[in-house]
């Protein structure tokens, strides 16, 4: 190569010599090209190998993927179960019904298990047919405005997106709802319809329980027809009478390290001493009460405003969200139960699940004392359900009392009527039943096993995080009433909150709480007008809304009309936040303040009457201003009456028929322009 290169440097070469040099040059280029192609091929070969290996990796992983821990099918096979009862539960009732159905199964030679859908992969439903005589039952509560409960949200999302073939699945659904709400039993209806659409076989009709009526009776009526349908489908028969089978065994701890004993925590042991975010239902934040003042100037009721300090909690909230608080039962009720049953309430014990495969090891955090269980973990103030009466009946030594308890727990019409009058309508809680049946003295551990869990109470937040980022405000009325038996029943949470003293060390000023997000939201554009209707404590979220609109105005934003319809009994007695509302109106934030004093004149005046009075302005705001409407408070009467008033206004000014007006308002709801935050 070097020789070839030398002559090329001589400019005096003749023409033949030039030709020889050209031949030589081609040879050199050939070698260069061959080398280049070889190099490129070598590089491509190795690069190609690497590229081929990349897509193989996930394939290898998916083939070798381990069996999911969350497979309820594997668990059922392992434990010999053939009935699974899923529950969507917000307050514990659906879970309780699911447990009762799973316990029923043994009477028919079947084995059941209650399951939280949040803990399992529900796409496994397509495999349930692998188990002989298998059945999936769904006890589904509806929460809020037709929403799934928190623990059923993932299941609901899966159902909406699923294209699974469930043709081998046999199912039944019992829904828990309340007829005073717009979307009665929406979740139960949806699950029942969607499972059928996916090819599943319904073996018994959808049950619709109504908590505004008698939910317990609705469930019993459905259940007593459900099991015969199961028997007929599978060709099985009842093996005997309903029997009392303990689910948990008692272990008394005589020598225990008190640092390992639960004292009221909801999840992690010592979580109240060593607080760690994030805070939620299983890990509530202990908030200090910084203010607790009476709002009403007179009358028999006690309406109060509380402020909870959430500094350093990292808790964030928006106007319209709910605050959940975990209350404690009245110590005098707890002590009376202990005295009647002759128990040392400070005994430390555990109730351990006899089913070792169950995810639920204890009915409540254990080990703990009976006093802690009855104070923080168990519901001792609501009338007990019929299954509790049935289980307790065996401990009544008087034949008449035992028969009475069994009759009330039966499905006979006479028994249902007796349960309704003697327990439900008389509002007899467990203490009252023990007092009125002197021979009924059950072991306290069995009673603790049977009583439902004490639930968190939800309140609409009465503040804006823009103005109060470090505190959550509550507006509530204490519940207190005399029963038909002459007893004074008190609301657990409101009376507990009433006694919370600000600026005091110790538990007397601490409230376990967390925030639950809601869909009750101010419009995205501050310039959008809002019409708020909230009588009584229904004013709570609107205090937050008005605070936020005032803050937006201070920031220089254009804020639309802010209209409030509020109602109370007497102007000089229970007009809540009167001074604050007057100030907001004076500052021009609250553009209209309409107050109905229902009992200050001969004829009662309510918020819907004021809406009718201002109907032209109301329609203008809705039609031209594209206003958002918000209703908060009583679902049974107020919310329904207000909605009917809107139907009338829309019909009159929109020149629509009644059905068209109804459809118009429903569309406002669908678009998020008519929102409800109601309770019954």
TrEMBL record:
Gene Ontology molecular function: flavin adenine dinucleotide binding; FMN binding; NADPH-hemoprotein reductase activity
One GO biological process term: response to hormone
TM annotation in the entry: 25-46
SUPFAM superfamilies: Ferredoxin reductase-like, C-terminal NADP-linked domain, Flavoproteins, Riboflavin synthase domain-like
Full protein name: NADPH--hemoprotein reductase
InterPro entries: CysJ-like_FAD-binding (IPR003097), FAD-bd_FR_type (IPR017927), Flavdoxin-like (IPR001094), Flavodoxin/NO_synth (IPR008254), Flavoprot_Pyr_Nucl_cyt_Rdtase (IPR001709), Flavoprotein-like_sf (IPR029039), FNR_nucleotide-bd (IPR039261), NADPH_Cyt_P450_Rdtase_alpha (IPR023173)
Keyword check for Nucleotide-binding: no
Gene3D superfamilies according to UniProt: 3.40.50.360, NADPH-cytochrome p450 Reductase, Chain A, domain 3, Nucleotide-binding domain of ferredoxin-NADP reductase (FNR) module, Translation factors
Documented EC number(s): 1.6.2.4
Cofactor: FAD; FMN
HAMAP family: NCPR (MF_03212)
Taxonomic superkingdom: Eukaryota
CDD domains for the chain: CYPOR
Pfam families, A to Z: FAD_binding_1, Flavodoxin_1, NAD_binding_1
Organism whose genome encodes this protein: Dicrurus megarhynchus
Segments forming domain FAD-binding FR-type: 282-523
Lineage of the species this protein comes from: Eukaryota, Metazoa, Chordata, Craniata, Vertebrata
GO CC terms, sorted: cytosol
The keyword Flavoprotein is assigned to this record: yes
Start and end residues of each Flavodoxin-like domain: 83-227
């Amino acid at each position: 190569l070097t020789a070839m290169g030398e002559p090329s440097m001589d400019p005096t070469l003749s023409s033949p010599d030039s030709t020889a040099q050209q031949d030589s040059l081609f040879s050199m280029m050939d070698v260069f090209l061959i080398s280049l192609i070889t190099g490129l091929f070598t590089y491509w070969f190795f690069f190609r190998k690497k590229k081929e290996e990349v897509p193989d990796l996930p394939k290898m992983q998916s083939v070798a993927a381990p069996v999911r821990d969350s497979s309820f099918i594997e668990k059922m096979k392992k434990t010999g179960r053939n009935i699974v009862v899923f529950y969507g539960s917000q307050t514990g009732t659906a879970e309780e019904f699911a447990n009762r159905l799973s316990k029923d199964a043994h009477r028919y030679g079947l084995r059941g298990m209650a399951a939280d859908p949040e803990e399992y992969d529900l796409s496994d439903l397509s495999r349930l047919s692998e188990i002989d005589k298998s059945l999936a039952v769904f006890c589904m509560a509806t929460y809020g405005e037709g929403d799934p409960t928190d623990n059923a949200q993932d299941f609901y999302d899966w159902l909406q997106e699923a294209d699974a073939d469930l043709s081998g699945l046999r199912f039944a659904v019992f829904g828990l709802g309340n007829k005073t709400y717009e979307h009665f039993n929406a979740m139960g209806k949806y699950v029942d319809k969607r499972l059928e659409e996916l090819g599943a076989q319904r073996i018994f009709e959808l049950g619709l329980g109504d908590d505004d009526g008698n939910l317990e009776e609705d469930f019993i009526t459905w259940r007593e027809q459900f099991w015969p349908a199961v028997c007929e489908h599978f060709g099985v028969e009842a093996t005997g009478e309903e029997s009392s089978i303990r689910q948990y065994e008692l272990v008394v701890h005589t020598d225990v390290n008190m640092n390992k004993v639960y004292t009221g925590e909801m999840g992690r042991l010592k979580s109240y001493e060593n607080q760690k975010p994030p805070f939620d239902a299983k890990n509530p934040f202990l908030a200090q009460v910084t203010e607790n003042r009476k709002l009403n100037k007179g009358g028999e009721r006690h309406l109060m405003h509380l402020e909870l300090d959430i500094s350093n909690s990292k808790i964030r909230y928006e106007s319209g969200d709910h605050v959940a608080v975990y209350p404690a039962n009245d110590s005098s009720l707890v002590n009376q139960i202990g005295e009647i049953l002759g128990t040392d309430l400070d005994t430390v014990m555990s109730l351990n699940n006899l089913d070792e495969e169950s995810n639920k090891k204890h009915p409540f955090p254990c080990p703990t004392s009976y006093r802690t269980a009855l104070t923080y973990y168990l519901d001792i103030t609501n009338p007990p359900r019929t299954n509790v009466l049935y289980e307790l009946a065996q401990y009544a030594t008087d034949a008449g009392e035992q028969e009475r308890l069994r009759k009330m727990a039966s499905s006979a019409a006479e028994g249902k009527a007796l349960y309704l009058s003697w327990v439900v309508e008389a509002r007899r809680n467990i203490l009252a039943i023990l007092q009125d049946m002197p021979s009924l003295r059950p072991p306290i551990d069995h009673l603790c096993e049977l009583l439902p869990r004490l639930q968190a109470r939800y309140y609409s937040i009465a503040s804006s995080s823009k103005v109060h980022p470090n505190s959550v405000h509550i507006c509530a009325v204490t519940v207190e009433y005399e029963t038909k038996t002459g007893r004074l029943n008190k609301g657990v949470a409101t009376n507990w909150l009433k006694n919370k003293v600000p600026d005091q060390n110790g538990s007397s000023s601490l409230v376990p709480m967390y925030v639950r997000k809601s869909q009750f939201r101010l419009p995205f554009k501050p310039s959008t007008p809002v019409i708020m209707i909230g009588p009584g404590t229904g004013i709570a979220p609107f205090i937050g809304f008005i605070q936020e609109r005032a803050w937006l105005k201070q920031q220089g934003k254009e804020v639309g009309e802010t209209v409030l319809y509020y109602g109370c009994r007497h102007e000089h007695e229970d007009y809540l936040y009167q001074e604050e509302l007057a100030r907001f109106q004076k500052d021009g934030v609250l553009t209209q303040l309409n107050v109905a004093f229902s009992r200050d004149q001969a004829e009662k005046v309510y918020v819907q009457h004021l809406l009718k009075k201002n109907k032209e302005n109301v329609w203008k705001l809705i039609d031209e201003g594209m206003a958002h409407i918000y209703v908060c408070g009583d679902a049974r009467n107020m919310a329904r009456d207000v909605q009917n008033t809107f139907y009338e206004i829309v019909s009159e000014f929109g020149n629509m028929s009644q059905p068209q007006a109804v459809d118009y308002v429903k569309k406002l709801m669908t678009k998020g322009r008519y929102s409800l935050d109601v309770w019954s």
